[in-house]
Write a structure and sequence with these properties.
Helix content is 78%, strand content 0%. The protein has helices at 3-32, 38-45, 49-77, 79-99, 103-131, 136-167, 170-190, 204-227, 232-254, 269-298, 303-308, 311-331, 333-351, 360-386, 395-427, 432-461. α3 (49-77) packs antiparallel against α15 (395-427). The protein has 16 helices and no strands. The two termini are 30 Å apart. The radius of gyration is 22 Å and the shape is globular. It has two domains: 10-190 and 257-463, Up-down Bundle (Growth Hormone, Chain: A), CATH 1.20.1250; 203-256, no CATH class. With 488 residues, it is an all-alpha fold.
Length: 488
């Protein structure tokens, strides 16, 4: 291959990565873009207070429950084709949400939007893995992936505040629809065709079992925040999730074409990555829930100011994700993961010092930057660990699995933290703003403790597998190098 051909190939891959990263950004954007506009959405379509939460929950429920199915479909049907179908569905549902005039239509559209996201996210990540084989190039690509993933969540709050204040809440969804179809057009031009895996039967029983199990679990967790943990339907949902989860394991053991092939977990690194990602995700989603609440309910900021307040966090997130591969090559991935988790924990502890009479500059700005840096570096390295050594034919389901663990971990973490924060607020017997602040502080302290525990677990689970004092593979072919950084 000549130097000119090599340069052209590199530019082509870079353009395709840009389109795929834009798809991931759009999915993450839709997760948080409604957060600062919920009161206006509630009034606009006549939602009850309980119904308002389902504007968020319907998206997250469908997204978390169908990620595994979306990833496997990408492996079997062709990742490019499945990506386009997911983007088309996502864009149509976004437009429908913006046109909704009734609660049922809006919540239904958000559920369909989540379904499209569950198809897009694993297909896009699998295509990135196809474009970049293991090595430094994949590390840099995952750095970009991590940057847009974290920035998408923060940008959703910013864009939601700007659009809501300028043109009203429907434009939150219309803007996502327009952006989605622009991404679809760019992907059609820039993303190359990839072959589907060898013909295999889609595991419909396993898909149904795990989809319904995750639906029951996430529904129970989100409902428990308002109805209580001992509510009959909540307990029934948890029981259903447990039974169907057990059924899924039995189905997979007897299936010749399982939804989640056991070979994914043969090396142990995928298992470690997903366990750590689940714990990490439990803090991630809660951060974008409590921080805007503190800014609006305690500091009195409006939607626009609250949204703009996420910009430093988003900038730190993008910087950290870009630097993550370089840091891992210099000090090793294990040290990078542990350092990133502890950095984020330090930021959470700093946030636990927020005050009733505080301000954005004194109480939010500094810890937001620290959290953003740690969050992004940890996300990039844990994603790399979760797909390390995965065969090309399984890259879609591996991407779906790591997204599922993060999403389900987030649902569990948010349910637990909101319950604890609410309990602390109710028991505070102080003026309202002081009681709210005390609840938020507690949530941030617990988040920091979870991150420290995750760092300790990472020190055990991400140690390089060694035999006769040698690592199994060289860092140059491993997206998550050994902690020593030395060659075997």
């Amino acid at each position: 291959m000549t130097a000119v051909e090599s340069a052209m190939r590199k530019r082509s891959r870079g353009a395709a990565l840009t389109a795929l990263a834009a798809a991931q950004f759009t999915v993450m954007l839709a997760t948080s873009i409604v957060n600062v506009a919920l009161p206006q959405i509630r009034d606009g379509v006549g939602l009850s207070d309980g119904g308002t939460t389902w504007v968020v929950n319907a998206y997250g429920l469908a997204f978390g429950a169908l990620l595994l199915a979306g990833g496997r479909a990408a492996d079997l049907l062709g990742r490019r084709r499945v990506l386009f179908a997911g983007l088309a569905l996502f864009g149509a549902a976004s437009a429908a949400a913006g046109l909704a005039t009734s609660p049922a239509v809006l919540i239904g559209a958000r559920a369909v939007q989540g379904t499209g996201a569950a198809v897009v996210a694993p297909a896009a990540l699998a295509l990135v893995m196809d474009l970049y084989p293991p090595g430094p190039g994949r590390g840099r690509a995952l750095g970009i992936w991590g940057a847009v993933s974290g920035a998408g969540g923060a940008a959703g709050v910013v864009l939601g505040g700007v659009l809501n204040q300028a043109w009203g809440w429907p434009w939150i969804f219309h803007a996502v629809a327009v952006g989605t179809y622009l991404v679809l057009g760019a992907s059609a031009v820039l993303v190359p065709q990839t072959a589907a895996a060898e013909a295999a039967r889609f595991d419909l029983p396993g898909t149904a079992a795990i989809g319904l199990a995750l639906t029951g679990l996430v529904w129970g967790l989100t409902t428990a925040r308002s109805a209580g943990w001992t509510d009959g339907p909540v307990l029934g949902a948890f029981l259903l999730a447990a039974v169907l989860g057990a059924a899924f394991v039995l189905i997979e053991r007897g299936s010749s074409h399982p939804l989640v092939p056991p070979r994914l977990f043969a090396g142990g690194r995928v298992t470690a990555g997903n366990v750590l990602m689940g714990l990490f995700g439990s803090v991630w989603i809660a951060l974008f829930f409590f921080l805007p609440l503190y800014q609006q309910q305690v500091l009195g900021a409006g939607p626009l100011v609250t949204g703009l307040g996420q910009l430093p966090l988003a900038a730190a997130n993008m910087l950290g994700a870009t630097l993550a591969p370089r840091i891992a090559r210099r000090i090793g991935a294990t040290a990078t993961v542990i350092g990133a988790l502890l950095t984020e924990a330090a930021g959470m502890l700093w946030l636990s010092r927020i005050g009733v009479h505080g301000s954005f500059v004194t109480d939010v700005l500094g810890p937001s930057v620290l959290v953003g840096l740690g969050l992004s570096v940890a996300f990039v390295q844990l994603t790399a660990l979760s797909i390390e050594g995965v065969a090309k034919d399984d890259s879609g389901v591996a991407g779906g699995l790591v997204n599922t663990t993060r999403q389900v971990g987030g649902a569990i973490g948010l349910a637990v933290l909101t319950t604890v924060a609410g309990t602390v607020t109710s028991a505070a017997h102080r003026p309202r703003l002081e009681a709210l602040t005390e609840g938020y502080r507690t949530a941030f302290v617990i988040s920091a403790a979870v991150l420290v525990a995750t760092a300790l677990l990472a020190s055990l689970l991400t140690r390089p597998n060694t035999k006769a004092g040698k690592a199994p593979c060289a860092p140059s072919t491993n997206p998550l190098p050994s902690s020593s950084g030395s060659r075997p």
